[in-house]
Structures are given as C-alpha cells and as structure tokens.
Amino acid sequence: MSKRALLEVIALDVEDAVAAQAGGADRLELVTDIAADGLTPSAATVAGIRAAVDIPVRVMLRLADGFAAGDVGRLVGVAEEMRGVGAEEFVLGFLDSDGGVDLDAVERVVGVLGGCRWTFHRAIDRAGDRDALRKALDGLPGLDAYLTAGAATGVDEGLPRLLAEAARGGEPGYEQRILVGGGLRLEHVPHLLSAGIDAFHIGGAARPGGWSGAVSEAAVGQWRGVLDGG
Questions:
Q1: Angle, CA 199 vertex, CA 75 and CA 113 arms, to 5°
Q2: What is the model's pTM?
Q3: What are the chain's domains?
Q4: Taking the CA of residue 73 as centre, how many other CA atoms within 13 Å lie in the half-sphere pointing to its CB?
Q5: What is the pLDDT of residues 23-52, one digit of tens each?
Q6: Which Pfam families does the UniProt record give (predicted)?
Q7: What distance in Å separates the CA atoms of residue 197 and residue 218, rounded to the nearest whole number?
C-alpha cells in the first residue's frame, strides 16, 4: 500500500485548527497576519491550538513581511518563547540582500530549536540560486522539508522545476521532502503525485469564503479525498 500523502493546512486560530483536523489535515502551519504572508503567532495562540488538536503544528518564525531575518536576537528569543509553550515543529527561512540564504540567521535560530523538525519556507522561491541554497543548508539539524511552488509566481509556472527537483531526491541537498504550496490547485495534484511528490500545503484553498472566513472542514475534506485517490 502506498504511503498516505501529507496535507498541511494554514491555521490562524483554534477554529481553523479544529476544522482542518476534522477535514483530514495531517499537519498545521500556524501563522498570524496573512496580509504579510504569515508571521509568528502569539504564544497564547500556539498553546490554545496545541490543546485543541492532536495533529502536528508547525509554528512560523518570521517577524516582518519579506525574507530578511531582521533582528536575529529577537527571532531567537521568539523561538525560545515558542519552545517554552510547547511548540515542537517550526517554519522559517531567511535570505540576504543578494538573494542567497542568510545562513548565519538560520543557524542561530535553528540552534535554539533543540533538534526540532522544521520547514524552510517559500523564501527558496525568491532565492537567486535554489541549488546553492539547498546545498548550503544540507545537514542542518531538523530540516526535513522545503515549502515551495517551484517559482515565485506559483505552481503554474513552477511545476516543471518541482518535477525536476523531485527527480533529484536523495542527492546532497535534495533529501528533504518537497512540500508543494503557493497557487496549488487540485488539478496540479496528479502530476505531482506521479513524480513522487507526496506533501501538499494549502491556505486559501481551504477557505471558500476567502481569508476573512474560517477554514472549511468540507474544503479540506475534498483535498483529502483527492490525495487519497477518492
């Protein structure tokens, strides 16, 4: 039997988290301020969601719009605060002014996560050299996924790159799971699954009423059914 594909859903609050789990989500990405593409939520929100659901929760570590790390000392403090309220998985990723990975910032933040698993987020889609970024991060403790659309504009443009990177799985820098998100639609799924990609990330697609509305259990369930071959 083939392994169940992973479905990750963006949650902003407890209501979202409960609906996503009920619809069949395997994991949550927890953020606030979606207008800024997702920033670090409050410690109280993290604690409340962890108490409300029993699926894994990945907490965003990002303090401002854009992909610059900003105040790394503050980021480190926020990461420690999240660990203090029980967060066990994270999402992060920082670029320097030249579009390369800000390895110092990443290493400093990862250094306080105690080996927790984490995703390098869509900063990779803005990197000047994706291959160099992957190889620079290779071997960092806890890194197990890249959230990517294959292109800054989304999966429509990035699909060929996603398929090409999937074909390199197992090479240095390519051992991590490809978690596809960013303009992802149901019609993309068969092409991705056929390439061996088995992790999918949705935000707006889980909210028929838009970002002003909550996650829909039914919408998540539709994605779950397609991923399961239903």
A1: 25
A2: 0.96
A3: 6-227 (3.20.20.380)
A4: 0
A5: 999 999 999 999 999 999 999 999 999 999
A6: CutC
A7: 24
